[in-house]
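Reopening closed ticket. The problem is back. First fold of the pair:
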Amino acid sequence: MPLRAAVLTVSDLGARGERVDTAGPAVAELLRGAGFEVSDTTIVPDEPDQISGRLVTWCDEGIDLIATTGGTGLSRRDRTPEATLRVVEYRVPGMEEGMRAAGRASTPLSMLTRAVVGVRGQTLVINLPGSERGARENLEALLPVLQHACESLRGDADEVAGTHDEMQR
């Protein structure tokens, strides 16, 4: 069964139709190229209750991977990390560190991101920047481990054990 993904764009302007979202479609394209079936894409405003509500719904529907774009900076309305932390059971700091390191190679401004990566049930939730370039760079940094991470969460133990052993070598 293919791994299923969903992309949530968090943007006040995008939700009102005042800005064209390019980051969400770019993320969906990268995920499809990595073998994920992108089953849903949605735009919500920078409202923590709407963000966390959509995350919970998708997790409960059995989505393997949720990528959010936007709302990870320092502005007053940027609350995607807080909304994500409300719903995840635990964080995956290595993936967070990997995204920041990849971003730092491109711009020192990447140090300002508050993006988190966490798990709820069998779903991996990744916060990405709202800019198309930032979202692409951060997701590309994680692509080599995404399938393995999602299969581990899904419990495909036989496949995961062999892959994990090979990755450790």
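Second fold of the pair, where the issue appears:
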Amino acid sequence: MVRFSLKITRLQHSAGVHYLNEIIINLHMHTWYSDGHASHREIAYAAMKAGLDAVIVTDHNIWVDGLEKYYRHENQRVLVLIGEEIHDPTRLPQKNHLLVFGANHELAPLAYDPQQLLDGVRQHGGLSFLAHIIDLAAPAVNEPDISWNDWDIHGFTGIELWNGFSEFKSLIKSKAHAVFYAFFPHLVAHGPSPDALKKWDDLLKSGSHIVAVGGADAHAIPSRLGPLKRTLFPYEFHFRAINTHCLISRELTGNLKEDRSMILDALANGHAFIGYDLPASTRGFSFTAQGITQTAQMGDVIPAKNGVTFQIRLPQLAECRLIKNGAVLKTWRNRKSCTLITAEQGVYRVEAYINYYNKRRGWIFSNPIYLT
């Protein structure tokens, strides 16, 4: 499937009509350079098969220079950007993992101090996302708790709200569970950890603008239990599941510098939402706020004075919840279109749920719109 023509969302502004292009990216994965099991080119081919527009490779404590580019195969293309997942390897267990995008500089030597690392990312013009903030231990497979635990920090761009591999770990109560989910990975995802959602809402209520993203944390780990062999979550599977959808100012041009800048700008400003695309594509979702003189999209600030109309559009019928300051304000069921008018200040975001394999599962998690 060719991804050169992108979904267009139209927003009305007082100055005219502004078009936003929706692209799908996956932004947390590993290659042979750290603990992954594929090359950048192989990851690019898996991303093309899954219909992604871009990926951000984040090897552990190594910034790989020279491989950031468009990869092409026949009439398809995908943009591969290079980031890094940084943590202090001398600490056991190795908590406080940070996803770094756009710094274009090796910053792993700063990992011993999370605040110095965040300051270094900012000084180099990069973005920083606290990785898998809730990542509990799985003793059955000797996996430690590697949640983020140093919250006496400031200056980070956002958090990885939903991490696919962390959720898998949370389900492993025995080796039998590990084998079961290795063979039936489509049964894993239910949504972000409730603790991660609460932490995000608490940060937002404190006045911080914190961008949420979703990542695969893809490794494609070859595993074996007796005669049973299985690759734990191949890259292509991960790329069809938990993704981050970005709204950029215009279509991808094929120019590395320009397209990279548009993607990083969308992530920096929260012009994005998390979509679980395996049950059904989340492409086409929109969440806007219409005021008297302007329209806001996810990540934007808009005055509440004189009232604002929230408009939510879902790609298909689903359960939709509008969250205000961490609490459910309104729930719609079996709807594709939802509207609410308010003049109350607050932080508003959207969650959508669908049924998949007889269970209610998280489908869409928007970034907030801030009413001041």
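Update: turned out to be a display glitch only; the data is intact. The two ends are 42 Å apart (CA to CA). The chain has two domains: 7-278, 285-365+368-372. Please close again.
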